[in-house]
Description:
By secondary structure, the protein is of the alpha/beta class. The chain has 29 helices and ten strands. The protein folds into three domains: 18-86 and 112-364, Amino acid/polyamine transporter I (Up-down Bundle); 464-611, 3-Layer(aba) Sandwich (Rossmann fold), CATH 3.40.50; 612-748, HUPs (Rossmann fold, 3-Layer(aba) Sandwich), CATH 3.40.50.
Amino acid sequence: MFSKSKQQSGSKTVASQQGHGFGTAPVFLTSITTILGAILFLRFGYAVANVGLWGSLIIILLGHLVTIPTVLAVSEIATNRRVAGGGAYYIVSRSFGTSIGGAIGLALYFSQAISVAFYMVAFAEAFVPIYQWILDTYEFSLDPRWVSVPCTLLLIALMLTKGADIGVSALWGISAILAASIATFFLGQGPESMQPDGLNITARIGNGDSFGTVFATCFPAFTGMIAGLGLSGDLKNPQKSIPLGTIAATLTGMVVYIFVAFKLCQSATPEALAADQFIMAQISLWGPAIYIGLGAAALSSALGSILVAPRTLQALARDNVLPIPKLNRLMEKGFGKNEEPVYATCVSGAIAIVFTGIGGVDFIAQILSMFFMVMYGALCAVSFLEHFAGNPSYRPTFHSRWYLSLLGTLMCGLMMIQISTLYAFISIFLMAITYLGLRRSSRSQRDLTAIFQGTMFQLTRWLQTTLQKNRVITSEGGWRPSIIAMTRFGERRLGHFDLLRWICHRHGFGQFIQFLPVEYSFTSDKEARSRVEGLIQRAEMSKAGIFVDSVICPTFPLAMAQILQMPGISGLPNNCVLLEFKGESTEEFEEVKQGARLAASLRSNVLILRSTEYRFGYRASIHVWVTEDNLKNAPLMLLLAYIIVGHPEWKRADIQLFACSEARNAEREADELSTLMEEGRIPISRQNVTSISYNSPEVLETEVAQRSFQADLVIAGLTEERLHSEELAQTLLSYESVNDVLFVHSIEEIVID
């Protein structure tokens, strides 16, 4: 019973979204009449004149390298989900989320609304012969706006009173006129005086406009291929009608433009084509048919825009994208059984009238072209990302190819720059500002991280498996730290965390593991997740490039055994273990001793931080103490010091090296270490290397206390004998007069060269 009622409810919802229940034909007609618009009649002769037939064909090809991938992407996305009212906006918002979809949707809406004005201005151009007749007969110059503004008002009134039904009905008549007009052009020959001597595909006028300028002028002709998407809420079967209608319109338009280019080149010289923007009227079998066709094309494009713009605004309002809540409530209202967007039509009409009255809006025209390009690029990007995300919920019945979607995305970016670099950046800037505003008001919505998450998962998997298959020997690939750190004091102590993020800022990779000494259970797992969330926030605030996680285990040795088996996050095996203790805590020291010995036995370098409340002070000085018995650890000690001072927080730090020897040749050892650093390009000058002779551990302790009591970090070596001896505690608690100390035990033979 519940299932039945649910199905009935769902069917009602779908029915309400189907609106008029149109088929595929309105999608095709809306798109093709927009593609074969004013530029075909007014500016394509200009294109052939300035770049020749060959250049015109390249323009058609480049334009369709944008439009065809976009159409295929739209068709694919539309067959993956039920497409409701809002057309292209609905597709983007349901794929990208309301924040990004809303930013693109607002740009799309204003483009559609202002496009009505542009098409009506072009419609007024169709009456040029009448203007000329009035001027010749009555010596009165008629402003084209006397035609465009009243006709715009009439068009809006028609939509408000008759709705989409009359619009679609008119499309049939307008399409027939347009087809007849183009047919008369192909059947005509034109005066013999302007016909060229044969077909010359490279002929063009001298000192003509550049290819980029011509492309920018003609490209808007190809941007009407998704005009029919605005009817998505009024289609009976959008999953079928959108792919069929848009693909058919795009291919038909491309074929028509190719034939028109050949016909123009064959019928008139480049000079004749450049001299008259209505050259098609001279070539046509019946000249007035071209003016009628221009009027029909412009009127049909305006009609298509006034059909889809209010529905886009209505969909935006239903998603609460508009900044004023009351405005959302008003614009989302629909009237009648077909949910006609009356209020949205009034707003769209007002915008159209304003720009029709302005007339010359070249600046706005280029911005609008950019917005359309951003829209197409976004649609292609959605399809491209979905291909690589591998999301099982993405199951379109029509499939494009990932490389076509990528091509469309790249071509959109290149063409935006080709048309105008300045306007391209202005468009992107405005889109970014809109997105940030929407993002602040809808934080619960998907953002860029969520959008790219699926793709990032797939990319990470591919990188990990590739690195695993192509592991290199450390000595061949160059040594770099891949550190895993574990502590039970993740929230209360920052020194351990800070040291790891400094080392892993640029040259290394790190994992910070929060240890919970309890049995694994639902409660402990929940607590561990909470701890990790806190660490993630800390990593984000400190801009730490490290991975954080947790391990739940009853004892520290078992936890250490687990993390030592964890793979490195970069694909590079973990080669260092970083442990930390504070003061003379017996429990902490015992855990550090067990962990360090286990790590060393498994051939991992051991780093032990003895932290204090000093917390690395001003981060201005690092003192490295190298003794005779710690020469094996010296390369790793020096390399760590070099890596740490590479972090911005240590950018003013100075490294001091102390070469200590029980014999009288301490100076010679200092020289050898200086040579090692010079050959290894470690930035420690000879003036910063001090040789020290000592004859007992007590003397060495005194030297360290006197010279390093103000150092922000002291790095000392830890020999294998000391690590496994009963004197380990004494060693780690030595140098008690200094602040934070990092003890280094190197298992690997690290070469500095």
